[in-house]
Design a protein that fits this description.
Helix content: over 70%
Pfam families: PPR (PF01535), PPR_2 (PF13041), PPR_3 (PF13812)
Distance between the termini: 49 Å
InterPro entries: PPR/CCM1_RNA-binding, PPR_rpt, TPR-like_helical_dom_sf
PPR repeats: 240-274, 275-309, 310-344, 345-379, 380-414, 415-449
Keywords: Repeat
Shape: flat
Number of helices: 28
Number of strands: 0
Protein name: Pentacotripeptide-repeat region of PRORP domain-containing protein
Strand content: under 5%
């Protein structure tokens, strides 16, 4: 005999099967189907209603909270975008145990999670606590993690001010920390910002080889790169292969191929052997000046010099022939690459997908996609977007659904970006059942459909008087929070 509660639950499951499964998926603290302690702890953190509730659940779970497990849990939180405050409670609870010390990885990961949510005050709270417990956990990598999140939303001045705060936190406020600041500015701001900050602070630190390599790696102007290269020499810092590769690359991108070849000659004079990165830049530069055949010859010269091309080098050569619309040669280069034991990657295929997309060549795109899947090379988001937009343009519903099914089954591509285009196609074609199925598959993967797609499907369901389906979809969307109506 079932109890009254069990009976109500059973009737609810029969009437709302999809919603019932979803509630189990999103609301259960642990998944009885798995014994993975990382999954158990992650679910406790995600579903706890308070810090006290979380601590009680962790204690009753019987899971041993080791450094390795905490590292893995925090990594899971980072990539799943779980609640940062609940995660901070977990970090503090585990860190406050007597005799326990977090790893540098755990510290940097919680700081990244907080920074992504712009909880900068809490970042400094964590760092101050860490300073008093184990200052050695705060490393130049920590500096870069924090500054990168700050630089994304704050000014250069605010980023530099945050950098200065680390003087009282890190064990050694030295050139490695300075390099972390410069690398952050190169990645999150501009080379001009990095250059200005370098000149304003260089007298407080002693620039080293890494400092100059960071600054050289982002230049687009040949003159500015040359200026930094000269300053490097004046300070007695000897260039290495990375330094020279930066100079070769800026010359190649600036279409000054002759200067690039002179740098390669100078490298050899100084007994610095060009590596595969040097040659890849040369190959790309020759393509920019319309010499794809000469670039192909460089592949042969590399081997003669004892430097064998990798996938990136072949991709550079293939790109040249794709740009020149000589796809036969491009395909032969891909075949040659495979014959050398190198597997074509998503970037390789995207070179062809781009050409087929702009030439509106559906057949070639579909055949290439088939070849890609047969070889076990999973498409990336760019591949998926080239394909789904082409399917949308030519109204190929079945092809679009095949791509989507492959994404769901094999777990590649961005569900959010692809689904927007897919739902447009399905709604225009009146394929409401298919749109509903794809919507539910997406939610089951823990991915939130965009509000635009939801509203469009909602309108069509209202017109078709599919109230039950609309109710399920509305409940699903509510799991991700309030839905904006405009």
């Amino acid at each position: 005999m079932m109890t009254a509660t069990q009976s109500r639950t059973f009737r609810y499951a029969l009437q709302n099967p999809n919603l019932f499964i979803s509630r189990l998926f999103f609301c259960s603290e642990t998944n009885p189907a798995t014994n993975d302690p990382v999954d158990t702890v992650f679910r406790i953190i995600s579903s706890s209603t308070s810090s006290k509730n979380m601590k009680q659940s962790l204690k009753s779970s019987g899971v041993f909270l080791s450094n390795d497990l905490i590292d893995k849990v925090l990594k899971r939180v980072r990539f799943s975008h779980a609640n940062p405050l609940q995660t901070l409670d977990f970090f503090n609870y585990t860190g406050n145990r007597k005799g326990f010390y977090h790893t540098p990885f755990s510290l940097d990961t919680i700081l990244y999670i907080l920074g992504r949510s712009r909880m900068f005050e809490k970042i400094w709270d964590v760092l101050v606590d860490t300073k008093f417990k184990d200052r050695n956990l705060i490393t130049p990598r920590t500096v870069m993690v924090v500054l990168a999140r700050i630089a994304k939303v704050c000014s250069v001045r605010q980023t530099v001010e945050s950098f200065r705060k680390f003087k009282k936190l890190v064990p050694e406020f030295d050139t490695n920390c300075f390099n972390a600041l410069l690398r952050t500015l190169c990645q999150e701001k501009s080379m001009a910002d990095a250059r200005n900050v370098y000149h304003s602070l260089k007298h407080s630190f002693r620039p080293n080889l890494q400092t100059f390599n960071i600054l050289l790696s982002g230049w687009k102007s040949c003159e500015e790169a040359e200026g930094f290269f000269e300053e490097m020499r004046e300070m007695g810092v000897k260039p290495d292969v990375v330094s020279y590769n930066c100079l070769v690359d800026v010359y190649c991108k600036g279409r000054e191929i002759e200067k690039a070849f002179k740098v390669v000659a100078k490298m050899r004079d100084e007994d610095i052997q060009p590596d595969v990165i040097t040659y890849t830049s040369i190959i790309g530069g020759l393509g920019l000046v319309g010499q794809p055949d000469k670039a192909r010859d460089v592949l042969k010269e590399m081997k003669e010099d004892g430097c064998y091309p990798d996938v990136a080098a072949y991709n550079a050569a293939i790109r040249n022939f794709c740009i020149a619309k000589r796809l036969g040669v491009a395909y032969s280069l891909m075949d040659e690459m495979v014959s050398k034991g190198l597997n074509a990657n998503a970037t390789t295929y995207n070179l062809f997908f781009r050409v087929f997309y702009w030439s509106n060549d559906l057949t070639s795109s579909w055949n290439l996609y088939g070849r890609m899947m047969e070889t076990g090379c999973l498409p990336n988001t760019q591949s998926c977007m080239f394909l789904i937009r082409l399917f949308r343009r030519q109204e190929k519903v079945e092809m679009a659904l095949q791509l989507w099914n492959d994404m769901v089954e094999k777990g590649f591509g961005s569900y959010v970006l692809v689904s927007d285009v897919l739902f447009d196609l399905l709604c225009d074609a009146g394929k409401l059942m298919e749109a509903e199925r794809c919507f539910l598959q997406m939610v089951e993967k823990g991915q939130k459909p965009s509000n635009v797609s939801y509203r469009r499907i909602k309108v069509l369901m209202e017109l078709a008087n599919k109230q039950d389906s609309l109710h399920i979809l509305s409940e699903k969307m509510a799991l991700f929070g309030p839905v904006r109506t405009s």
